[in-house]
Amino acid sequence: MAFEGLSERLQKAFSGLRRKGKVTEADVRDTMREIRLALLEADVNFGVVKDFVKTVREQALGAEVLDSLTPAQQIIKIVNDELTKTMGEAAVPLNKSAKIPTVIMMAGLQGAGKTTTVGKLSKYLMENDNARPLLIAADVYRPAAIDQLKVIGEQLQVPVFDMGTDTDPVEIVRQGLAQAALQKNDYVLIDTAGRLQIDEQLMTELANIKALAHPDEILLVVDSMTGQAATDVAKGFNERLDITGVVLTKLDGDTRGGAALSIRQVTGKPIKFIGQGEKMDALDVFYPDRMANRILGMGDMLTLIDKAQKNYDEKQAQEVAEKIKENTFDFNDFLNQMDQVQNMGSMDEIMKMIPGLANNPAMKNFHVDPKDMAHQRAILYSMTPAEREDPDLLNPSRRRRIAAGSGVPIMKVNQMIKQFNQAKKMMNQMYKGNFSGMEGLMGNGISGRLGKMAMNNMVRKQKKNKKKRLKAAKHFKS
Amino acid sequence: MGLFDSIKKAFGGGQPEAAETEKYDEGLKKSRSTFGERLNALFANFRSVDDDFFDDLEEMLIGADVGFETAVKLTDELRDEVKLQNAKQADEVSQVIVQKLVDIYGEAGEGEDNTLHFAESGPTVFLFVGVNGAGKTTTIGKLAHQLKESGKTVLLAAGDTFRAGAIEQLQEWGRRDDVPVVATQAGGDPAAVVFDAVKRAKEENFDVLLVDTAGRLQNKVNLMKELDKIKRVIIRELPEAPQEVLLVLDATTGQNALSQAKEFNQTTKISGIVLTKLDGSGKGGIVLAIRNELHVPVKLVGLGEKMDDLQPFAPDKFVYGLFKGLIKETPES
Fold first, then answer.
1. Residues 6+ apart with CB under 8 A from A186
2. Do A109 and B63 touch (CB under 8 A)?
3. CA A145, CA A164: separation in Å to the nearest integer?
4. A50 reaches B (C-beta below 8 A)
């Protein structure tokens, strides 16, 4: 299968290795080959891979790695750390001009998602910075590109400056900036036409716009599905424009996004944002460590937690926890939970972020049908309040009625009740600190252990944060 | 006779249909030179046949966007082949490799049908599908122009009711090409638009109906179902249609192309691929990848921004160009 993660590849390489008393150079070579292939498979540029593997090899040859009991995990850790390091240690915020307006200019190939990103970015700025942006429509080439920006502007209630398609883009930008100065807009976002990095004429146009507008940010918008060509594109644009950052789009697809690594490596410029959906709020800050996990097919627990925190009602969660503890968790709570989970996004997306499930070949054909959730909901709604509160009431006759009421076969009703009871039992166990029932959830073998590693990592981070918070609170008191 | 031999013959017997090939040559100049140069550079650095050489070869193939699977498979086969033929000199090795590449390419393409199919009577329907930003609307705009030039009556259906400005974009193409567009307001039901379009195509006897759809990532279950519905609507109204379901694929896409082809094929049974932006990717290898990994014929290629830069795909000419200068002109024995 084309999409197996690094963990699996490494497991293969190490399965033979474990039986040996001593690890040889040749074994290391095999391992490095697997790493190389895994990265190439994730669309990382082959030149970048070469350098990368060299660095990893040097580290992996250290005695403590190969002598350790878990060389596979040690090496994954090295790769993960190195990936994170290569992509920049921390998230990089947008540049902001000392005096208004902050000018942000977009550049990129056709169909990368520049116009959509302009919309998302202005929404982001309005929400996080109370910005009053002005959008400049400088794409005069693609049919209806200006209309597209105008529609987005309307949706977001952001003014769009355009002069039709007959004016030189440089002139449009000049007048647009003048208008921004007049209206005292604090952000100006310039949408430009898509172009090939080898198109001399159009690249000169971009350079002219740059010379005129002195943008504080030149964001290269790149499709995350881009393959080996990503380096050429990034290099081309960077050489002409000296970009200040990158936006990686369409990451809500099932691409591994190795392009992120390639681009960062050849340009040295930070990836600032990622686009993860078609809606206007689907723009997120880029976190290198999370991307590293994704490229390796290790899931993205942190984003999942972020999302959960954003959408989860803490008080309700507390109540649920209480109920789990008392083992009085009922269908009403289940319904509530379902609502909250759905707020976090589609099940597919959530599953992908769980370590061991992302890019797990067993999960490859697993699609959670959004309809399934609807069916479950229908079943739940077909129960009487008494039944929802006390699942034990559900005798066969009641089940038949529920099946008829919700329009599903009785099999499905039984299935759901069984699942509910299992989940309830598991949650209760988990609450008591017994994780043994969870193992199946996290996949088997190495992916399971990997999952645990990620879990532990996460718990550590959370503890650290908590400590920080406590410290800050103490500080505040005294 | 394998493809390799016929190409070799072509080298011996002068250029095949020189004039016709010219446009092709021009558009793919960059792809070709990069691919050829890469191979040449590889052979220039050739010292001996060892693991490092094959690692380099593998990297070169992946770098040329031949695709991961194909590259690994090719390298493995070449490893055996070189051993089998006992090639040691740089010359011999390069011949063995090029021959193998060409033959594998020919083999995978056996029985491949690269032509667009039209209905024998009544309207022909082409359905265009693909991820966001692949170039569906632009391809339709260009194809409509060409079909009209060739004397066909063309109708466009604006099935992308989701993306801001998508309907206007297709309508603008309609104005440029002077062909009618069936559209509804933004946010409308795409299946309804398609239904109206099919009905109109039937009633007013249009030759070809080109159906645009919204870009969608292949892992979005509901959006894929919407596509399924669109196709069902077409089939219900015209049982023979759609004659072609074309997956529009950006040539710069990496491994994800495989997943795209697979998922879209599952929902809509794609009949061909339109490979866009091939002028920019600079690496022709993607065509090898599509053949070997996707098993769907490439039917159209986008070689530039101009109207007639959308070209029917001629696989033999393409491979001829790809390996130009790499095959030694040996007299036919």
1. A100, A101, A102, A131, A132, A133
2. no
3. 10
4. yes
Given a cut of 90, whether residue A118 has pLDDT beyond it is yes
pLDDT at B179: 92
Q: Mutate which of A28, A48, A110 to test chain B, going by most B C-beta atoms within 10 A?
A: A110
Can you tell me the distance from the alpha carbon of B158 to that of B128, in angstroms, rounded to the nearest whole number?
11
Average the pLDDT over each of A214-228, A283-297, A307-321, B256-270 and give the range with the smallest value: A307-321
Round to whole Å and give the CA distance between B65 and B288: 9
B8 pLDDT exceeds 60?
no
Chain A hits for B172, Cβ within 8 Å: 143-144
SS3 of residue B83 by DSSP: helix
Interface predicted TM-score (ipTM): 0.81
Per-residue model confidence as pLDDT tens digits over A322-352? 766 666 777 877 777 777 666 666 666 666 5
Distance CA A382, CA A373 (A): 14
Q: How far is A124 from chain B (nearest CA, A)?
A: 18
Please give the Cα distance from B78 to B39 (Å, whole number).
Answer: 14
Separation in Å, CA of A348 to nearest CA in chain B? 8
Interface probe with A: pick from B172, B223, B255, most Cβ of A within 10 Å: B255
Nearest chain B CA: its distance from A393 CA (Å):
35
Following DSSP, what letter does each residue of A354-371 receive, concatenated? STTTTT-GGGTT----HH
Question: Is residue B256's pLDDT more than 80?
Answer: yes
Sign of CA dihedral A436, A441, A446, A451: negative
Q: Which of 3.30.565.10, 3.90.400.10, 3.40.50.300, 1.20.120.140 would CATH assign to domain A6-86?
A: 1.20.120.140
pLDDT digits (tens, 9 = 90+) for A278-324: 888 889 898 888 777 777 766 555 565 566 656 656 666 667 667 66
Q: Single out the residue of B288, B244, B321 nearest to residue B104, CA to CA.
A: B288
CB contact under 8 A, A144 and B169: yes
Higher-pLDDT residue of B279 and A53 is: A53
Q: In what order do the strands lie in the sheet with B244-250?
A: B181-182, B154-159, B208-213, B124-129, B244-250, B272-276, B298-302, B310-312
Could you count the other beta carbons within 10 Å of the beta carbon of residue B333?
A: 3
Within 8 A of A295 by CB-CB distance, chain B residues are none
* Relative orientation angle of helices A370-381 and A410-431, to the nearest 10 degrees: 90
Class of domain A102-298: alpha beta
CB crowding B220-259: b at 16 or more within 10 Å, else e = bbebbebbeebbebbeebbeebbbbbbbbbbbbbbbbbbb
**Cα A431 versus chain centre, distance:** 29
**pLDDT, greater one: B100 or A65:** B100
Domain boundaries, chain A: 6-86, 102-298, 304-445
CATH 3.20.20.70 matches A304-445: no
Q: What is the pLDDT of residues B84-138, one digit of tens each?
A: 877 777 777 777 777 877 777 777 777 778 888 888 888 999 999 999 988 999 9
Domains and CATH numbers, chain B: 3-112 (1.20.120.140), 124-270 (3.40.50.300)
Q: Which two tokens stand for residue B182?
A: 């069936």
Amino acid letter, residue B136: K
H-type alpha helices, chain B: 3-12, 18-27, 29-44, 51-63, 68-84, 90-108, 136-149, 166-177, 190-203, 221-237, 256-268, 278-281, 285-289, 315-322
Name the strands in the sheet holding A133-138, side by side, starting at the edge strand that comes first in the sequence: A160-161, A133-138, A187-192, A102-108, A217-223, A245-249, A271-275, A283-285
